[in-house]
Amino acid sequence: MKTKQHQTPSYEGRPYAKPEEELVDQGLQFDIGTLLSRRGVLFAGGAAAAVGLAACTNSADAAGADTSAAADASDLTEIPEETAGPYPGDGSNGPDVLEQSGVVRSDIRASFGDSTTAAEGVDLEIELTLYDMANDNARFEGAAVYLWHCNRDGEYSMYSDAIVNENYLRGVQVADADGVVKFTSVFPACYSGRWPHIHFEVYPDVDSITDSANAIATSQIALPQDACDTVYAEEGYEQSVENLSQVSLETDGIFSDDGGASQLPSVSGDVAGGYAIALPVGVDTTTEAGGGGSAPSGGGEGGPGGTPPGGSESSGDS
């Protein structure tokens, strides 16, 4: 009689990293491997449709749509190094979402894991195009981006008391052959003391993402005022109206040095259909990264960094 051999469970031909655990608990590296294997299949199957897609893109450009980062990198500058703030969720100051299976995703509106609660607000598509400035501004294929921001109430998941058990509005994407990463999110609030913004960290490759000290760039996106004014007139954003009236790009503790000149994205869309922003991001690996990788220090509550409501941390620029 033959003895039945034990078989390691697999997904899409890839053996589980943790055979005793469920698929959703296989860890970040397994998720990334799945993402890259799918990307290879999509690339092979999508070549035949390239001409048709190009035609659609050209039509959109002719109609005035501007949802992609500038293709001309001739005047590109290095993205400014900024603080990761006291709510990074990358393990440098308390909780670490980057170790959780499921963090590699483009739609970051809902929590993953033990909760599926979704953040409310006006939809926002975020597109970053990464350029490797140490390699003649080549598109930075394979770089990993971790992006996060506050919700409609100005709260940060994993930190603010009301949503400390949520992990929404946080996610990781890996740059494609064009150096592009895309996220689907909601328009963040303006909380007291800070201009509306979005945080992100850039890592050289997928194997580096689990240690925040490996970040090669840490910066913030400054949201354009016209879009903010329109969105904050919507229900649920009432407090942002007053907060925005008390700050400007010139007085903000982060963007005041140059008014966010290289951190203001192009913007398109409207409240009904959602907004889209796009920003070229120059990354120079020959310069020292200094924004992330460690917990913030200094700056008490109400300081230049601002204070999100219900936060469990009140120090440092946020």
UniProtKB/TrEMBL annotation:
Q: Where is the composition biased (Gly residues)?
A: 289-309
Domain Intradiol ring-cleavage dioxygenases residues, every copy: 140-193
Keyword entries, A-Z:
Dioxygenase, Oxidoreductase
Carries keyword S-adenosyl-L-methionine? Answer: no
Give an example GO molecular function. dioxygenase activity
Q: Name one Pfam family in it.
A: Dioxygenase_C
What protein is this chain from?
Intradiol ring-cleavage dioxygenase
Query: What is the organism of origin for this protein?
Result: Glycomyces mayteni
